[in-house]
Amino acid sequence: MEQTMNTTVMRQTNRRRVCQYIYESVRPVTKQEIAGELSLSLPTVTGNLAELLEEGLVSCSGTQESTGGRKPQTYVLNPRARVAVGMCLLDDGAQLLAIDMWGEELGCRELPIPFAHTPEYYQEIARHLEEFIDSCGLDRKRLLGVGIAIPGIIDQAEGRLVMSPTLELWDIPLEEIYQHFSHYPAFIENTPNASGYAERWANSGQTNVVYLSLDRGVGGAIIQGDKQYMGDHGRGGEFGHMRLVPNGRQCNCGRRGCVEAYCSTSRLSVDLGLTLKEFFAQLQAGDKQAAAVWEEYRAHLTDALVNLRTCFDCDIILGGALSPYLEGLLPEICWELGEKTLFDGDSFFLHLDHFGSHGASAGTALRFIDDFLLTY
Q1: What is the pTM of this model?
Q2: Buried b (16+ CB within 10 A) or exposed e, 88-108
């Protein structure tokens, strides 16, 4: 019995290694290359490839005649063999995003539905989810799961949403949300952590990085190598509630002077009765009021960034709803950082994220892709 179990585990391990090798390859590969790189026998590789082909995880180019003889068969991942959906629930709307195994977007939908912690709200989101899956042409049998990102502090061990000032939620059992999405494997996590996970996935070669999410709420993530640092209680990266201005503006959390009170995107949009797009259009057009508001916002943002850089001594990635508007403004932000930072020439640590306003939805969906590759 033990020998049978060991043989089964070995077969599963080899199949997973073959699948991961093909997944990580940037070009089609031959079975000879797979065998050589993984130190496996050709019969073992052949058997595993047969299983992967049968399940539709890889596709194969047939042998062809050429002037130099027969070209060997090559194998490549079928990225739509498995898919995942990410969902981001915000106070003023929701977002649905479908991705394939390479993290490529298969579809995105914005839902202008204000948040409400009621069965009717979740049922409406679930209905839109089903319509979205159909509109993207996704095969539900290949859907690995639905990730749900929420702006708030989540205690996974206790299964509770500790607090979400943005959504005005306090001490809520996660099951009250899960139950409405029980048709699929589901996972609920903090929005900035999900966005940070997406950046870790996109920057797999980077050693350490801090991610700062600028949205209606402000948060972040700490990435060390290929792991995300969560802290002893899962609260690592709650940068939005660092004290920035003693006895300053009231924050949604109830305290005063938090980073979120000064760097929330609401300072540029809701507080002015504008959308972000309208604000930056005015700024670009030379509007003096917009310029004054932006100057104050940028000053507080760079103060927060300098504090993060001083604490963590690594690159910082800016993401969230603000990210798509910052590319043309990045030089002036970096110049101001250079004026404030302690170390000479230390102002080129700032970058914009890869997924923009889709970061949280992408990150929470990518967890299902990674889990599949690790456990397949």
Answers
A1: 0.81
A2: bbbbeebbbbbbbbebeebbb
